[in-house]
Hints:
By secondary structure, this protein is α/β, with parallel strands linked by helices. The chain has helices spanning 4-15, 18-30, 71-76, 119-127, 149-160, 185-206, 222-234, 270-284, 299-307, 317-322, 326-340, and strands at residues 47-49, 52-54, 58-60, 81-87, 100-103, 108-111, 136-141, 166-170, 212-216, 239-242, 263-266, 290-293, 312-315. The protein is globular and about 50 Å long.
Amino acid sequence: MADAFTLLRPLIHGLLPPEAAHALGLWALGRGLLSASAIVRLPALEVTAFGLAFASPIGLAAGFDKNALVIDALLDQGFGFVEAGTVTPLPQPGNPRPRIFRLSCDEAVINRLGFNNDGLEAFLKHFRQRDHSKGIAGINIGKNKEGSPIADYVTGLQAVYPYADYITVNISSPNTPGLRDLQARDTLRQLLKMVRHVREECAQTHGKNVPLLLKVAPDLNGQEKEDVAEAALAYGINGLIISNTTVSRPEYVKSRHAREQGGLSGRPLFALSTQALKDFYQLTGGRIPLVGVGGIGSAEDAYAKIRAGATLVQLYTALVYQGFGVAREIQEGLAELLKRDGFSHVQQAVGVDCCG
Length: 356
């Protein structure tokens, strides 16, 4: 049965600009107006990655719940995990509006939000209230538009470490000036060296090891991918998220907003991000888990990411076009696809299309 959001979507898209519709979704979730998904636990989809046990590999990417307002409600919609943020040390308004654009005929979105969020203090006030029994919640940290990038990541890491199930260092949004420059070899190594040092200090202080992930862009060239993979392995990064939005514009994207500045997500990102995923799986030799993101809207899409090397996957733009029931539908479909191909467990399928 379609959920209320799906039934109302044509009206919402017709009457509300994207950012207002997003705010409405958060409001409805926060007030319990969207019924919880009828989740069926499927043993074939249970995944262990970077020391954490996930009920399923289907997660919600960062960006939807920037201020950790509705983590429990999102987990109730059937996601195996939720990544909140991106959060920066200080509050910031982000870029001027309009800054989100629906590309409906392409099942895509362009955003140039610019890490708009309420800052660490407000974020953690909300995040600490979550119900840990509902599932895994990660925190995506970024830098403020002004100031020292490394200092901001250190501040963010120290602040969220006691509370996060895992932490993602986001150096790949195209909407914060200079952010993607942190993916360059020498700068990245300097950042990861400091992050490793701070994480070791936090682990001693808090008596636990919180996994650290790195989120990278799909637009890296071959040498840049090699540099990122080498640095991630050298500095003990526990996982890579492949990928963020793209600044490229495939020629077949025809929506009237196609040339808006910002990061493109959704269906047109699928091929580029999946190829990047395969590249990183081969470059890392499967030694660290990868999270596949970009253009997932169906069980077949999620399965392709897994076969390309993803241990976990995340979606976001699919919510805009399919509603919150998409997580449950993908999980059920993925279980059928695994069974069809003779896999008894999802981790048996990871990277099978990268062999040979």
